[in-house]
Amino acid sequence: MSDLVVDARARVGAFSLDARFRAKPGVTVLFGPTASGKTLTLRLVAGVMRPESGSIRFGDADLGDVPPHARGLGYAPQDSGLWPHRDVRAHLTPFASPERSDALLALVALEPHANRRPNGLSGGERQRLAFARALARKPSLLLLDEPFSALDDESRMKMGGIVRAEAERGATILFVTHDRAEAERLGDAFVLFRDGKTEEVSRLRPEG
Amino acid sequence: MSALAVSLRVVACALVFVVPLGAALGFYLARGRGAMRAVADALVLVPLVLPPSVVGYLLLLLLGRHGAIGSFLDTALGVRLVFSSAGASIAAAAVALPLMAKGAEAAFARVDRGLEEVAAANGLPPRETFRIVTLPLALPGLGVAITLATLRALGEFGATLTFAGYTKSTATAPLEVYFAMQLGDDARALSLSIALVIASVGAALLLRAWSRR
Question: Which value does ipTM take for this structure?
């Protein structure tokens, strides 16, 4: 049961990010307009990019000293990041036993597509696969970047239920979304992003 | 037709070194940074842009019986590369390595880093990420590089003649064509030439099919 403490500065081109927030176990929704720094923040926490200054701590560990693969993460990037040369099931088998891989495919309703390559999948199917891959190692820190934006309402509800179950299991989850209803449904806490600055709030204010 | 057998043997021995070395060098060129990389990038092209006779001459200075390394090989180990099949392989490897390295560099540079990052961020160690993501995605490009390097090694003439000379065990097909022609054995020159044309066109077609997969 670990808190994630982000206190990091980073710059990409003309954009600069100054992210400061604490995320407790449960679902912390990162909310805000496009290009406000949400994806960049996830990339810093994932360790695929380094902050210019500051630190990212998870529990007792300073993640700055830990390479990405050893951070105990699950990560579903915005573009899903699927591997074109591997079939659906082979996205899970590097991370989980064959039995668990099959169970995960069933969980996200991709069993019928187990032997397909990603280019044969719809946008929603691609997102569900990226989500299942992020869950595969039962991560203690789960990073989901607009994971369900291409899903219909029904499967969005179903996947949201899985996210809640991960939260009950004790995972610390950062969930990026533009969808206010989804944010309110899933979030235990919220971090508002605006122009690269962050603000912790306990609930989303009404629009305007 | 023993010239073709010599050629195949020389090329095969050269490739045993050129493929792994060139692939590793290409990976470094694609991913490395800083001054070391810039130096390696410049040096790797040298055997490709120099006249083959100069490459052969430099090899002779280095590895010949009186060369810097060659004299040591000769006195300490009794190994003589000049006039040997191994020498011909070294000459072929020297000119083929740049093509392998630059081709591999392009192959690795085309791999989407985001696809590697997502592997790492989900818990795959670097070695596994390379095996599961990087290498398979670079494979088509590596195939092209191997084919080009093979063809260059197969067609090697100048460096081989200068460094390894023309003997029974270094008489590759390109050398045989030249000396058959000089000796007026037109039938032999022609039949070997036709064999080389067929091998080259076949490889080019294979390359085309591979890169269109």
Answer: 0.93
